[in-house]
Write a structure and sequence with these properties.
Number of helices of chain B: 0
Order of helices and strands of chain B: EEEEEEEEEEE
Structural class of chain A: mainly beta
Number of strands of chain A: 11
Strand content of chain A: over 45%
Number of helices of chain A: 0
Helix content of chain B: under 10%
Radius of gyration of chain B: 13 Å
Radius of gyration of chain A: 14 Å
Largest interface: A-B, 19 and 23 residues
Strand content of chain B: over 45%
Oligomer: heterodimer
Order of helices and strands of chain A: EEEEEEEEEEE
Largest sheet of chain A: 7 strands, mixed
Chain lengths: ~120, ~100
């Protein structure tokens, strides 16, 4: 069974930092590009960041560029999102998501259950 | 960034109805368009990728079509479990989602 389990969410003050983790199992984690997607309360979905299978290619949404850093540890089937200088508008459920097989169309196939990040004083 | 516009924002229909949701891109994205279903309190689920390819395990009443800038997701015979919000997403450049279409039954 495919599983992606996020952790590390919580309440943080504006300007603070937080590190999200995601543990993958049940699929070939090291061969998949991985992503973070967020959803503000009652709002739609927003792609945050992507990292290729070997960490060669990394992309960020403009809204988090320079504040967030994505990384992965394929030996431990883990994905991370280091978040700095957090703002109120970063409040959201953060999903860890696997892309489809490399070389096929780009889509988001396996989703975690999400971890809530709340930025508030 | 490429803007994705869905319509309608919400709809109400009956069991057995045929329902179509449209998604328009602000520029051509060829066939780089995916559809997701999100039930309340759950993570999104991939339904269709590359505009018209049904993801494994997704019921055949779901279908996707379109290319370029105009796309659609059709549910041929609406079922109670299809009550959800549906999102389109383009993967042609920096990924963006539509604002969602809430389907009530």
């Amino acid at each position: 069974e495919v599983q992606l389990v996020e952790s590390g969410g919580g309440l943080v003050k504006p300007g603070g930092s937080l590190r999200l983790s995601c543990a993958g199992s049940g699929f070939s984690f090291s061969s998949r590009n991985m992503n973070w997607v967020r959803q503000s309360p009652g709002k739609g979905l927003e792609w945050v960041s992507s990292i290729s299978s070997a960490s060669t290619y990394i992309n960020y949404a403009a809204s988090v560029m320079g504040r967030f850093t994505i990384s992965r540890d394929n030996a431990n089937n883990s994905l991370y999102l280091q978040m700095h200088s957090l703002r109120d508008e970063d409040t959201a459920v953060y999903y860890c998501v696997s892309s489809g097989p490399v070389g096929t169309s780009a889509y988001l196939v396996y989703w975690g259950q999400g971890t809530l990040v709340t930025v508030s004083s | 960034d490429i803007q994705m516009t869905q319509s309608p924002s919400s709809l109400s229909a009956f069991v057995g109805d045929r329902v179509t949701i449209t998604c328009r891109a602000s520029q051509s994205i060829r066939m780089s368009l995916n559809w997701y279903q999100q039930r309340p309190g759950k993570a999104p689920k991939l339904l269709v990728y590359a505009a018209s390819t049904l993801q494994s395990g997704v019921p055949s009443r779901f279908s996707g079509s379109g290319s370029g800038t105009d796309f659609s997701l059709t549910i041929s015979s609406l079922q109670p479990e299809d009550s959800a919000t549906y999102y389109c997403q383009q993967s042609f450049s920096i990924w963006t989602f539509g604002q969602g279409t809430k389907v009530e039954i």
